[in-house]
User: Fold this.
Amino acid sequence: MLVKPAFAENEQICTQVYGGGVVCGASHEVVDTAISVHPAVLGTGLLGLSRVFAYISKKLKNSSQE
Assistant:
């Protein structure tokens, strides 16, 4: 499954106070909010990396005790 990039939309929020004029806020630029890696792939990679670090740590601990 591919992740499609999400973009924040340009919005102009306008409010009107009873008996007053319309006041509008500033519009915003579009910002890319998507990551390029699927979260499941990222999570699996981080778990695998932690497994590698645990293995290396165990090997270093055993070699220092000898």
In short: The chain is about 40% helix and 10% strand.
